[in-house]
Predict the 3D structure of the following.
Amino acid sequence: MRRTISILALGLFTFSTLAKDPGMKKGTPDIISISVLEFNDDGILFIGDSKGGSIYAVDLNDKKNSSNQEALNIEDLEGKLAGMLGTTADNIMIHDMAVNPISQNVYLSVSRGRAKWTSRWETPNDLEDASILIRITPSGDMSEASLENVDYSSAAIPNPVASDIEHRWKKGAKLRSDAITDIAFDGDKVYIAGLSNEEFRSAMWTVPYPFTSDVKANTLEIFHGAHGKWETASPVRAFLPYQLNNQKQLLAAYLCTPLVTIDATKLEDGQHVKGRTVAEFGSGNFPIDMVLYQNKGKDYILMSNSALPLLLFDPTDVANYKGEITEEVQGYLSGVKYTPRSGNGVQQLADFNEKYILSTQRLPNGKLALTSLSKEWLYP
């Protein structure tokens, strides 16, 4: 969903050199909700299970190299899924998307809950538990990916938000759907964002992979420029680990829409960590996804949103920004510069190959399409 890997690097992979997880066992993981998806460079799928309060590493035995450089487009994605799953398109809901960097197979977590959608602030995980994993090949062939009798390992996140707590302003929603809001793999670590049961609910958990030691837990605090106050209850919605000025940072986006850098070196177990707010992108919006990609040898970050266009920004601008937003922002826009890109209705994002970023996009005719965005077109 978020990581980038070159085709040259893919060519160096062999079955014998791919990393093995000694803690994996054969069986069927007890996943309640396929809330969040992420791949590492070895083709291991990480599944964040909000309802179960755990993260799973699953080996789907999907390690055949692909050198595909073509676009992938499916005009009526929900319609095709509905036909396969025996329901109607208006019931199909996609919760997350990730691309295996080795095979370029696309994975979707899916439920039959879209007819329950009544508010623009609701997320798929608020409405239903995703229980179906779909695989789409680079040529567009679609099938259900089985999680039965697979190699897997798991780690429980400590003290996730309790399952019975009602959301303060989303009628009928429980905070537990935000126990895991996003995950990112970096080096040998998995970062997990969400809500805890602590007094300061916003949390970031860190666990090494393979899962050989305990999960570290941190609470987070940020200044929200659009709201004009420090906040500890709102979870990170989308984030990426990135090296800024020779220091590992988490570049994180929140509801309404502050962009924050979090010093990853401060994520020691049990610590309360304050982020540095470096931008405000607008109220009345929440970030949906964030992807790091390369074009012409340079890194870019692209963010999709519920109510804003695609936002493209250069990590160098983030690194060079010396300020910090600590006062209410008039007009809701401030900080790191960005380039808006047309992309109304774009939801999920994933780095697909050297030429394209894959997205799901709601079209004017109401259909949801799987579309390929040219990295050349996105170039500022």
Q: What stands out?
A: Confidence is low (pLDDT under 50) at residues 4-17. The longest helix spans residues 77-85.
